[in-house]
Design the sequence.
């Protein structure tokens, strides 16, 4: 445990930010699962909407440094390819 008052505050702030970041990552994961489920069910309309949602969340998280920018871009490219392949198969 910290002995200095400012260090105690930093511990509280870090715990709060960690909880916020975890919630954001969990939300991204949930929307990614919805997108992948729509792709596996071959539902183009639902997949397009889910793709927009997950990309928007990833962009916001990358902007706030919750996830790394390159990681977000790599996942977005992967999801875009999945959506493109789904559209081509129909």
Sequence:
């Amino acid at each position: 445990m910290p002995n200095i008052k400012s260090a105690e505050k930093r511990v509280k702030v870090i715990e709060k930010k960690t909880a916020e970041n975890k919630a954001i990552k969990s939300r991204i994961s949930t929307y990614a699962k919805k997108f992948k489920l729509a792709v596996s069910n071959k539902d183009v309309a639902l997949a397009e909407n889910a793709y927009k949602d997950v990309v928007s969340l990833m962009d916001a998280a990358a902007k706030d440094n919750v996830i790394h920018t390159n990681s977000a871009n790599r996942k977005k490219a992967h999801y875009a390819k999945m959506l493109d392949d789904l559209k081509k198969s129909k």
